[in-house]
Design goal:
- It is a single chain.
- The protein is mainly beta.
- It is about 0% helix and about 55% strand.
- A hairpin with a 5-residue loop joins strand 5 and strand 6.
Length: about 120
Amino acid sequence: QVQLVESGGGLVQVGGSLRLSCAASGRTFRTYTMGWFRQAPGKERQIIAVINWSGDSTYYPDSQGRFTISRDNAKNAVYLQMNSLNPEATAVYYCAAGSRSSPLPTDYDYWGQGTQVTVSS
């Protein structure tokens, strides 16, 4: 099993950037595909991007701004670089671990607690 803790969220101006981190614990971290999701209040959880064990990434078209997902297996960490943010990016951001690449939350086995991102005018 793996435990996930997100950090790096906060308040940012429109057009600004944030880098989110997800710290993982567990010896099996390198075997997981990792995903970033976001969920705005009252709305469904939405896929942003996924990255497999070797660093191959997939991005999804309904994400806001410019995003780059990466991972550092030696540090048991996954990151989401977010650039050119707009207010629609305001949400709680979650990292998740699963056995395969998928845009569906139900395909992920482990979730972090989330970190709030607020984009202001």
